[in-house]
């Protein structure tokens, strides 16, 4: 690349990096990462000898902060992310990569926020549930996303409908959770080389727990049969190639003997021809036979090498079967763990909705003409505090809207 073109490309790439960094800072500000935030990681290294930037595409990508507050980073493992700013996390990843790869200059790591953890609105609102977080979100905005406070005249009927809806959603989520728990048990059994899927403790007292595990047991047996069939097929191919090698070796020995005889005959005929006792046509015929035998010998040698290479490739494929399956099972197990965490959050939310619907229904049935007032509380990091309509929210917050009811004075 000409010097001016390389300088232009370097300047342009630096401008892009600065723009991305500025965008993240403008969006995130002093924001501290939290569980369920989705982030994008970009790694760029400056190469002084080449005078250009190089992006580490293998490390770039998107990731979600898990329930333990960490995010997976290639070569570094789990990096603690919750409670840190994007810039702080990027700096720690940069230092870690510099140490792992022994770099003189630490690579530039940019962490951007793709999506924040959602907020949850529960209690006396029209449409309880989870909603996307955006910077500047406060209580009244979140309540508006949930349809506003529940103030309609048919509040009692709606509470009954909410109870039925929340109960149904919880039952569906619970069924999915049971199936995922059984799948996790099956994946763990496969990774450990077990032939039986144990019943998870969470399903031991569940009515359909044994049936759900039986389905995964059937899948385990099918996977084991398929793996055995693949291994048997590869072994049979190796045996076939070995038999072919044996045949080729026999042909090679036969052709070598024929070639040795033909060469001796050619020497004798040439001696006779030089004495005028044999025709030159006879010499030419034997020379042609020798050439054909040499060509056949070369073809056989090539076929032997090709068969040996096929055996070597098949041996590698056979050895890779277990490694590939282990990698697939590990990836699937990680995915299932994430889905289980999501379902547990959904079940907790639905259970809260069920409890609120029961309490509200009982209150409405007990009260006559009521005066209604609403109060708000924010559940954050396991603790609940009172809030107002203008209270600023953070990703992952749960906003609880409470309707106060009292009998009107006569």
Short description:
The protein is of the alpha+beta class.
The parts where pLDDT drops under 50 for at least 5 residues are: 1-28
Give the N-to-C terminal Cα separation: 90 Å
- Class by helix and strand content? alpha+beta
- In spatial order, strands of the major sheet run 8-7-11-9-10
What is the overall pLDDT average? Answer: 81
Task: Give me the Rg, rounded.
Answer: 37 Å
Describe this entry's structure for a reader.
By secondary structure, the chain is α+β, with helices and mostly antiparallel strands. Helix content is 58%, strand content 17%. It has six helices and eleven strands. It has a five-stranded mixed beta sheet. Strands 1, 2, 3 and 6 form a four-stranded antiparallel beta sheet that branches. A two-stranded antiparallel sheet has the order 4-5. The chain is elongated, with a radius of gyration of 37 Å. The N and C termini lie far apart (90 Å). 21% of the residues are buried. The N terminus is likely disordered.
Spell out the key features of this protein.
five-stranded mixed sheet, 410 residues, elongated, single chain, 11 strands, alpha+beta, four-stranded antiparallel sheet
Question: Layout of SSEs?
Answer:
Layout: H1 3-28, E1 38-47, E2 52-55, E3 61-64, E4 70-73, E5 77-80, H2 86-101, E6 108-115, E7 119-123, E8 129-131, H3 139-145, H4 155-191, H5 209-274, H6 280-366, E9 370-380, E10 383-387, E11 398-407
Parallel strand pairs: 7-11
Antiparallel strand pairs: 1-2, 1-3, 1-6, 4-5, 7-8, 9-10, 9-11
Helix pairs in contact: 4-5, 4-6, 5-6
């Amino acid at each position: 690349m000409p010097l001016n073109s390389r300088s232009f490309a370097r300047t342009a790439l630096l401008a892009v990096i600065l723009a991305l960094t500025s965008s993240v800072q403008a969006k995130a500000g002093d924001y501290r990462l939290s569980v369920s935030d989705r982030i994008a990681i970009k790694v760029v290294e400056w190469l002084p000898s080449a005078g250009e930037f190089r992006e580490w595409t293998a490390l770039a990508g998107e990731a979600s902060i898990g329930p333990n507050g960490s995010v997976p980073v290639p070569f570094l493992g789990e990096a603690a992310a919750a409670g840190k700013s994007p810039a702080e996390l990027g700096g720690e990843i940069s230092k870690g990569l510099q140490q792992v790869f022994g770099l003189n200059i630490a690579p530039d790591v940019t962490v951007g926020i793709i999506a924040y953890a959602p907020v949850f609105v529960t209690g006396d609102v029209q449409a309880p549930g989870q909603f996307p977080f955006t910077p500047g979100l406060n209580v009244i905005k979140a309540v508006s996303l949930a349809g506003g406070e529940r103030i309609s005249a048919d509040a009692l009927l709606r509470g009954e409908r909410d109870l039925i809806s929340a109960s149904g959603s919880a039952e569906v989520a619970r069924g999915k959770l049971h199936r995922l728990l059984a799948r996790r048990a099956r994946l763990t059994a496969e990774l450990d080389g077990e032939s039986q899927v144990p019943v998870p403790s969470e399903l031991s007292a569940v009515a359909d727990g044994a049936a759900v595990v039986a389905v995964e047991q059937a899948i385990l047996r099918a996977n084991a049969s398929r793996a055995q069939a693949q291994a048997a097929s590869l072994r049979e191919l190796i045996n076939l190639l070995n038999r072919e090698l044996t045949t080729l070796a026999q042909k090679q020995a036969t052709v070598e003997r024929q070639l040795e005889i033909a060469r001796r005959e050619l020497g004798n005929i040439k001696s006779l021809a030089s004495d005028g006792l044999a025709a030159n046509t006879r010499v030419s015929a034997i020379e042609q036979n020798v050439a054909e035998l040499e060509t056949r010998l070369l073809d056989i040698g090539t076929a032997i090498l090709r068969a040996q290479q096929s055996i070597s490739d098949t041996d590698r494929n056979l050895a890779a079967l277990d490694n590939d399956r282990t990698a697939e099972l590990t990836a699937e197990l990680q995915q299932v763990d994430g889905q289980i965490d999501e379902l547990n959050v959904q079940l907790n939310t639905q259970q809260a909705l069920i409890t609120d619907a029961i309490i509200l229904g009982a209150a409405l049935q007990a009260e006559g003409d009521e005066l209604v007032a609403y109060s708000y509380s924010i559940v954050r990091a396991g603790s609940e505090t009172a809030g107002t309509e203008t209270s600023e929210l953070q990703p992952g917050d749960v906003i609880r809207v409470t309707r106060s009811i009292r009998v009107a004075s006569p």
